[in-house]
Amino acid sequence: MNFITQINTLNNSHCKEIIDIILPIQQIEFNVPVTLEGQPDLLDIETNYHQTGGNFWGAFHNGELVGTIAIIAIGNNAGALRKMFVRKEYRGKELGIAQLLLDTLIAYCKQNEINAIYLGTVDMLKAAHRFYEKNGFTQLDKAELPKSFPLMGADNIFYELYLGN
Fold first, then answer.
1. pLDDT tens digits along 148-160
2. What is the pTM assigned to this prediction?
3. DSSP assignments along 36-76, one per residue
4. Residue 101: what are its φ and ψ, rounded to 5°?
């Protein structure tokens, strides 16, 4: 498979494509009880991500959006990693799309003085837990999250990564 991945910043013109990736993975593939109404940030990427001092990226293969990742700046040099999803057929170490997305986000954080990254996920996403742990994230209790961390109702596992700046 000839595979060239491009990582690009996404904006409001990509909302439909972003939703078309994220909702089926959440609802159909993993049966996470979330709706679009519960994620209004997906309808306004620029306000919810760019204007916070964060960003939203997509991985493209042959012009098709196949993965997403985002960061929301939450104050005190911290950020909330959000919306990390890769279409099933594009997952795995062989293609390395998830790693490219995470590396892009970490590089952005370092350039923008975001020194701690927090994230929430759900217990059933075991492969995601392994991926985050392999990349240096450590699990923490919900009570240890910064007060400014934007909680998602379905999340029940939380991680942090210090970038050491």
1. 999 988 899 999 9
2. 0.94
3. STT-GGGG-HHHHTGGGT-EEEEEEETTEEEEEEEEEEEET
4. -60, -50
